[in-house]
Amino acid sequence: MYVGISMSVLSRVDFGTNVYTRDWDVLIVLDTARVDAMEEVAPEFDFIESVDSIRSVGSTSSEWIAKTFDTRYQNDIANTALLSANPHVQHTLYDRQFPEDDKDAYFSLTSWDTAFPEDFQYIEQPWQYATNEQYDHVLPEDLTDRAVSLYREQEPDRMVVHYMQPHRPHIANAYEEGRDLTDAERDPFTYLKNGGDRDTVFTNHVSDLEFVLRTGVEPLLRNIDAETVAITADHGDGFGENWCYAHIAGDPRQQVRRVPWIETEAIDHGELDPELNPPETAETSTEDRLEALGYI
């Protein structure tokens, strides 16, 4: 009921900063990245001079997609190539399943004005063919591989590259150690609600943020030419503060609405020779992938 009511209101009004009101050639979206985590890891990366923040237009991926790609920004969208590891692109833009549908809202009178896939210059969804089955994520290096290839070939005016990290499951430590996920890494919010340690979950979130910045974002910035690159998040995550766990649609709390905003540049040093190519068909189920990410 809450989601239905909140979406009925928020689908009609501005609530946050739409990224299309900012100047960027490439927008890097790190799913659920928190501002405090970004501030903690920033000194490790030369391309992060300072960490600012904006208020997101959504507190879930589907809400962020529905609000970001609003037809008011049609001219910008028409010049945008969207490369996303997040299955909500399929769910929202193609299947027209909006936040109230995701949550089976009891009541809603929404008024979305979201663009259709054909309104974009290009859309590709590597989660359909490049998900690492052991860890239920598209690895940052694979998304970067496709992003570099597309940017060099198509030279879009604008490109959005949406990484899934540091969204749960938190895979960085397990992947680098070649092991299975712990309960805290696989489902941090159930772990917390059962009395788990918040520091453990936050540390895992930070590790995944470092992982995507090191193996995904940094190589991307060294293999494309873009004068203005912005790094942000679609929303954050709650780790128990103010009874906020994970993220729900229509949530106004700072943990999920305040997201990083970092500006930098990209210079192509020709270090990466992309190898990943999409198959002619992709059979992956959207529902299966959303369930693996904890949405269903």
From TrEMBL:
Q: Which domain of life is it from?
A: Archaea
Annotated Sulfatase N-terminal domain residues: 119-248
Q: Which InterPro entries does the record associate with it?
A: Alkaline_phosphatase_core_sf, Sulfatase_N
What single Pfam family name could you report for this chain, choosing any that match?
A: Sulfatase
Q: What is this protein called?
A: Sulfatase N-terminal domain-containing protein
Query: Can you name the source organism?
Result: Haloterrigena gelatinilytica
